[in-house]
Amino acid sequence: MDNFKRVEEINKSLKIDAVLISNGNNMRYVSGFAGETGYLYISDNHHAVITDFRYTYQAEAEAEGYEIITIGSGGYEEAINDLLKKDKVKRLGFESEDMLFSKYEHLRDALAGYELVPIKDEITRLRRIKTPRELEYIKEAEAIGDKVFTEILSFIKPGMTELEIAARIEYLLKVNGGEGSSFPAIVASGVNSSMPHAVPGHKKIEVGDFITMDFGCVYNGYCSDMTRTIVVGKATEKQKEIYNIVLEAQMAALDAIKPGLKGKDIDKVARDIIYKAGYEGCFGHGLGHSVGLFIHESPRLSPAEEDILEVGMTETVEPGIYIRDFGGVRIEDLVVVTEDGHENYTHSDKSLIQL
Known about the structure:
Strand content: 15-25%
CATH topology of the largest domain: Creatine Amidinohydrolase
Distance between the termini: 51 Å
Strand order of the largest sheet: 4-3-2-1-5-6
Radius of gyration: 23 Å
CATH architecture of the largest domain: Alpha-Beta Complex
Number of helices: 9
CATH class of the largest domain: Alpha Beta
Largest sheet: 6 strands, mixed
Helix content: 25-40%
Order of helices and strands: HEHEEHEHEHEHHEEEEEEHHEEEEEEE
């Protein structure tokens, strides 16, 4: 089914006459248009991309079968009002989880006479189960990450900074076929590795450091995500202990993944292992998240996630242990849920690498 028809079904179920899609990833998913500015308007009579002159040609090339409306001096409000009048719209849906309140206020005032109806994440939820083509793109993006991890190991040397390594990773992601990074690469060494989302800085790599590297790329619009933690020099017994607990937790969670389980069920498998090993309080984030056109999608693997895993959903599996003033370990793979379990798209070595 064409994605705009799926949106039309949402309109009917919510008893709205049309919907204005503002989330860029949702616009791309439904229409194919990947421009940075605009709206997607869908009713029973119209499916249109509304954008400005900078993106007209791109929209014409990408949004096959869609009416392309280039705004004039009256801006987006004039173009939207024209469509609403043609369709005799009374109730217009908008993506309340995407739109800034200030933008909502502006539209509300500019579209006086029409009822604006918040539809929360109804359009975003269409993206939860990936198509075979989407999975191909995600798989290739993750394969690029695997190549980069292999290549970065020969680059890392004591004395270089976290920033140097992060820059090299992002360079290699593009050299190997990525369109760009799916998020700024995380490179955290030594005590900095105790911060799950540390920002690479001027700290120099020292012998004995943990280095956690979390990165991904975009391929045909779709994201990848992986994390590996290594040791520069010879690992201490404490480092080996923490690493092996995280690896055990990750492998157990991977083995548990299958359709029909709640996200919190998978999270609990890994969390129980880490907590029973004496590290309760050292794993403060969720076990994972879905990945697609955006790097952090739903459903998630977390203690609060009630949604059920279904075939075709992607999930990262990334337990960690983080100890203040010592360091931390995170190991992350990206998988797709299959009928009999999962397929792992990440193939980089998970044994403790000591450079």
